[in-house]
What does this fold into?
Amino acid sequence: MADYKATPEQWVFHCDAQSACILELRARVEQLEAKYETQRLATLEWGQQVDKHDRWIDEHLKRIMALEAAQQDKLDRLIAQDRDDAPDSAGLLVERAADKISKPLQLTPEQAQQISDLLAPNSKPTPNPSQIRSSLVERVAWAVWGYDAPENTARAAIREVAEWLNKIAACDSDYAHRAAALLKQEAER
It folds into this structure.
């Protein structure tokens, strides 16, 4: 379309009525096109905003769904672990408690096994054949001093270990508290 625009003088000129009519139609079409272009730009801009908003919502929904799925997976794993480890979880807890006790004390593997045997629920420790007739007090005295030391000193050492166990025991660690109680009981014999 040409950039030609009718002048006011041309509108007054009555001889060329057909040209004037065409020029008027052309002006109206240009106005409609301008209006349409403004509306189209506004619609495009609005559409872009809507698209941005929709993309933002989609991204956040995906993130929320991923977080919920992760939480659900974690919950499912915990439930499965609780079901699977019900009979075995005690053994795992005993091993962890025995490790917590034996590492700081630098116990030998045999001593660590004895601790785990003591901590295991519903189990009796496997006695060491060489120590069947000796008490814990005698064994502590022999281990610490290398000879038969006074029993009171060995009992005090056992009580100290029991107190230490109570201090380091985690809030939910029933095994360490039980081991401490058994040690105190053994020291009083």
Observations:
- The chain has a mean pLDDT of 75.
- Residues 90-188 form one domain.
